[in-house]
Design brief:
Blueprint (H helix, E strand, L loop, with lengths): L1 H25 L29 H5 L14 H20 L3 H23 L4 H17 L6 H20 L6 H39 L12 H26 L2
């Protein structure tokens, strides 16, 4: 029975991933995510239900539109599979609970932000606002976990990056500041600090690799949102283990 639940959670995640693909494509272009219905971005042909099965349709169509033959971006099945996998991992760690649902909601927001930031180098306010509304709702539902830690996390997450931005003369984007504040509202101040530390570490490693591979130069802008998102997911799953390991290390 438990295996069936895992499968259903994964499938649900891929379906949400399919919706996130619409968000990722349309929000930066200031298009409605409701109308028109899903269609080929090349020929405009309305997609049928058989074309919309997450991951599976891409495989069956061999990565091309059935009407015009245009190649379908690998991003579509990648987002669907990644979202399903993240939902599965969160469910595996936290079970069927409000806390798990809050992290699943947050992870969906992070997936959308990651791919938009990579392609367009922006973090849309609409997605941040949606995340904040969701964060407030979940904080009410999870009132037994307390409020103060999460308010501090909100202020700390956004405040630290805002301070860095001021000191560096704009070296940190406004979208990153808002994203970090949003994460603080979901995870509390301890995991906010863990997320910041891991994000900086991942960003440094990722930046060095991109420069070595000559994908980027020292002067190129490298989106920080994806590193924040990855760091947040690591913190959600293993943050307290890492904190305990660190505390045990400094205590000897």
């Amino acid at each position: 029975m438990m295996y069936l639940q895992y499968i259903l959670v994964f499938i649900f995640g891929t379906i949400i991933g399919s919706f996130l693909n619409v968000v990722i494509y349309r929000i930066p272009r200031k298009e409605s995510i409701v109308y028109p219905p899903s269609h080929c971005t090349k020929c405009g042909h309305k997609l049928k239900p058989v074309d919309l099965f997450p991951v599976l349709s891409y495989i069956l169509l061999k990565g091309r539109c059935r009407h015009c033959g245009e190649k379908i971006s690998i991003r579509y099945p990648a987002v669907e599979f990644l979202t399903g996998f993240i939902f599965f991992i969160i469910f595996y760690h936290f079970g069927l609970s409000i806390k798990a649902l809050s992290y699943i909601f947050l992870s969906a927001v992070l997936v959308a932000i990651t791919f938009i930031d990579i392609e367009h180098k922006i973090i849309p306010n609409k997605i941040i606002l949606t995340g904040l509304i969701g964060g407030i709702i979940f904080r009410v539902l999870l009132y037994n976990y307390g409020i103060l830690d999460y308010v501090i996390g909100f202020a700390l997450g956004g405040g630290i990056l805002l301070l860095i931005s001021i000191i560096s003369g704009g070296g940190m984007g406004g979208g990153d500041i808002k994203l970090m504040a949003l994460i603080g509202l979901f995870v509390g101040w301890k995991l906010t600090l863990t997320t910041l530390f891991i994000a900086v570490l991942l960003g440094a490693i990722g930046g060095i690799i991109l420069i070595i591979l000559k994908v980027k130069t020292r002067k190129d802008y490298i989106p920080f949102g994806p590193y924040i998102s990855m760091a947040c997911l690591i913190s959600i799953l293993y943050g307290y283990d890492l904190l305990n390991l660190y505390i045990g290390y400094i205590r000897g």
